[in-house]
Design brief:
By secondary structure, the protein is α/β, with parallel strands linked by helices. The chain contains 13 helices and 15 strands. A 7-stranded mixed sheet has the order 4-10-9-8-7-5-6, sandwiched between helices. The structure holds pyridoxal-5'-phosphate (PLP).
Length: about 450
């Protein structure tokens, strides 16, 4: 296996196991890693990657794994996608960095124009670019505070917004994200999310009751007039791919509008065709005031953004937003290539197709195995929640055992959820259908063996 062999779209699209997982070269690298890399940086599957493309991740031992993770919803357009590589390479050869705040360049502007066009709503918009999702969320809060002159931020049960100090505060789950890392940023308040599978009053009442509880907390415990921003994932990501009960998001958005609260949709995981639409908010016609994006935006290069109403975005004073690397020219070029790919290949349609295939298979499996409590999600963002059969008690040990069995057979899957009992599937949107089906075969065998 020579360095000259390309990854990207030309990588052979077949699962192939030639050693145990992980193989000897990966095991040796893991040992080196243990002596060089801080323990706090975890690993889902310790195979070291040699190349990747389409629906395949190939490791240093020559094993080819089916990718149901996309580097956590990042490589929707595929790894080393042709137009991402072409545009990034051209940019690398012209200049690598000037800092947009020092001397600007046009690709930054072009990415902002795309974001202003693609995000929901026909109103006048502005965007600002950053490096990571957490940084985008922090900046959305800064902008909302500057615009409203209020300080409180409302977030939701099971929400995830990042690992910096403010975004740890915005994130619900303690372990592993927050444990021992406090104290956290103040003026952050958490309210219920419409989680139909676990709503005490039943799924049918979930949207109405959860919205009533959430808005009641805002009015009675915080004071709506003190709230700068409400930050919400239109489908919870790390929280376990929970689609809020229909009607919940419109109620919350309406409340924000009435109370002058900036409605921030965190579309970092759900954005850029992942759910079968450019943004998951479109599903119920929600027009957010601000949208945060990252992950899928640039085919794997680090880039993030805040996009929203011009009058809110422009409330921050000149010089108040930015950063040394934010909107790096290579990352901007990659984003333009990624967006071009999404349009050219109609990746929204591809995501919907993936969702149909997955849901049909997984629903049939769930009818056979009561350990699968629920199959849910939208487009190429699908999950199963595992429970003790005959109950809704979380079964993280079943999720872990199924994930382990999948990994051993060459299928990369991720876990999620507040209780660690959700298996989530995020295949690249360009995955060939035969690999999608084979991945589901592997998963099905793993469920049959474990559950
Ligand atoms: C991943 C994620 C973030 C954080 O993004 P980073 O790039 O890891 O900082 C924030 N919000 C959501 C919904 C995410 O999925």
């Amino acid at each position: 296996m020579g360095a000259a062999q390309p990854g990207g779209p030309s990588l052979p699209q077949e699962r192939r196991l030639v050693t145990a997982i992980p193989g000897p070269k990966s095991v040796a690298l893991a040992e080196r890693r243990g002596k060089a890399v801080a323990r706090g940086v975890g690993t889902t599957l310790p195979v070291f990657v040699a190349r990747a493309g389409g629906g395949i991740v190939e490791d240093v031992d020559g094993n080819a794994l089916i990718d149901f993770g996309s580097g956590i919803a990042v490589t929707g357009v595929g790894n080393s996608a042709e137009s991402v590589v072409r545009r990034a390479r051209e940019q690398l050869e012209r200049f690598t960095h000037t800092c947009f705040m020092v001397t600007p360049y046009d690709s930054y502007v072009a990415v902002c124009e795309e974001l202003n066009r693609l995000t929901p709503g026909a109103h006048e918009k502005r965007s600002a670019l950053f490096n990571s999702g957490a940084e985008a969320v922090e900046n959305a809060v800064k902008i909302a505070r500057a615009s409203t002159r209020r300080s409180a931020v409302v977030v939701f049960d099971h929400g995830y917004h990042g690992r910096t100090n403010l975004t740890m505060a915005l994130t619900a789950k303690n372990m592993p994200y927050k444990e021992s890392f406090g104290p956290f940023a103040p003026e952050v308040y958490r309210v219920p999310f419409a989680y139909p599978f676990r709503w005490p009053g039943g799924a049918a009442n979930c949207a109405r009751e959860a919205a009533a509880e959430a808005t009641d907390v805002i009015v009675t415990q915080i004071g709506a007039h003190n709230v700068a921003a409400l930050v919400i994932e239109p489908i919870l990501g790390e929280g376990g791919f929970i689609e809020p009960a229909k009607g919940f998001l419109p109620r919350i958005a309406e409340f924000c509008r009435e109370q002058g609260i900036v409605f921030v949709a965190d579309e970092i995981q759900t954005g850029f065709c992942r759910t079968g639409q450019w943004f998951a908010c479109e599903d119920e016609g929600i027009v957010p005031d601000l949208v945060t994006t990252a992950k899928g935006i640039a085919g794997g290069l680090p880039l993030a953004a805040v996009t929203g109403r011009a009058e809110i975005m422009d409330a921050a004073h000149v010089g108040g937003l930015g950063g040394t690397y934010g909107g790096n020219p290579v990352a901007c070029a990659a984003a333009l290539g990624a967006i071009e790919t999404m349009r050219a290949l109609d990746l929204n349609a591809a995501a919907r197709r993936i969702g149909m295939v997955m849901k049909a298979r997984l629903s049939a499996l769930a009818r056979e195995y009561p350990a699968i409590g629920e199959v849910r999600g939208r487009g190429a963002m699908i999950a199963i929640e595992l429970v003790r059969p005959g109950s809704k008690d979380a079964a993280p040990e079943i999720a872990a055992a199924v994930a382990k069995a999948c990994h051993a057979e060459g299928l990369l899957v991720l876990t999620a959820g507040t209780y660690g009992n959700v298996l989530r599937f995020l295949p690249p949107l360009v995955i060939p259908e035969h690999l999608l089906v084979e991945g589901l075969d592997v998963l099905e065998r793993a469920v049959r063996r474990v559950a």
